[in-house]
Amino acid sequence: MSRAKEIAKKNALRIKRKKRVRGSISGTATVPRVTITKSNKYVSAQAIDDVAGNTLAAANSKTLGLSVTKESASKTAAIIAEGLKAKNIDTVVFDRNGYLYHGVVAAFADALRENGIKL
Hints:
Keywords: Ribonucleoprotein, Ribosomal protein, RNA-binding, rRNA-binding. This protein is an alpha+beta fold and about 120 residues long. It has one domain: Nucleotidyltransferase, domain 5, CATH 3.30.420.100. The protein is about 40% helix and about 20% strand. It contains three helices and four strands, in the order αβββαβα. The protein is globular and about 50 Å long.
């Protein structure tokens, strides 16, 4: 199997997991959905109110001048937590966006918990 086909299959499986998870979770104004997106260079996250279709808080490691590491995921989570606390939100629903829960994704979730946000 060529490298391009392997990558396409890997992405297709991630999209399949993403759709399966998104069918069961949704965010509201009081309990938003926090979703993480990662690439080979950056980590970004958003807190989303799915009912109104609004983004309540957002952070990106690119604007912070960071790369995709566990430390940068923790700093990005701290920015999200700060934005949520400013809006008096302390509970969220975590959407890992089809990624496996380890490494950067797990570090992001742990940093949210450390900053006082309940998942």
